[in-house]
Amino acid sequence: MPREAPPFRAGVIHSDDIKARLGGELGIGSADSGDFGMDMYQAREVLTRRREWVANELAAQRLKLAPGSFLGTLVWHDRKRTTSCAVTEVRGNHLTLQGNRGRATARVTYSAARLEELLQDQPKKSPPAVRMQAQALF
C-alpha cells in the first residue's frame, strides 16, 4: 500500500488538523495536550523559521548587495522618505542601511526578504526619481 504524503505537504496546515492526522497515524488518542501537543507546536515553529530563513537567503542572492551599495532615496513602510540610503553592513542575510531623514541620520537593519519587499513597493508609493532607482535594481 503506498504511503500518504506527509501532513505539511498534503495541505494540512492548521494545528488541529495536524494533531488529528498524526495522532491517528501514531495511534495516540488525544493530541490536545502533553508532550505530543508540545512537540507539534515546536515542529510548527521550526518549519515556520525554516521557511523564513530560506526566503531571506533567496532574497539576499537576488539582491546581491554589499557594503557600500548605494540605494538612493527610499520610502519606508511608515511612508517616511529617507535620502542617501546605502548599505553599511551585511551580516548573513540581514543588511544594515544608513540614510538621512532631514537632519537626522537613520540607521536600520532589515532582513533581505523585507528589504526586497520594500524595494518592490517603491513604484507604488514614491516619486518618479525613487521609482527609477528601485526599478534599476530589478
Structure description:
By secondary structure, this protein is of the alpha+beta class. It has 2 domains: 15-62; 65-136, no CATH class. It is built from 4 helices and 4 strands; from the N terminus they run ααββββαα. Strands 1-2-3-4 form a 4-stranded antiparallel beta sheet. α2 crosses α3 (112-125) and α3 (112-125) packs antiparallel against α4 (128-136). It is elongated and about 65 Å long.
Topology of this structure?
Layout: H1 15-26, H2 34-63, E1 70-75, E2 81-91, E3 94-101, E4 104-111, H3 112-125, H4 128-136
Antiparallel strand pairs: 1-2, 2-3, 3-4
Helix pairs in contact: 1-2, 2-3, 3-4
Labels describing this entry:
2 domains, 4 strands, 138 residues, alpha+beta
Tally the helices: what do you get? 4
Supply the helix-strand structural class. Answer: alpha+beta
**Count of folded domains:** 2
Low-confidence stretches: none
Got a strand count? Answer: 4
Give a short overview.
The protein folds into 2 domains: 15-62; 65-136, no CATH class. Helix content is 47%, strand content 24%. The chain is built from 4 helices and 4 strands; from the N terminus they run ααββββαα.
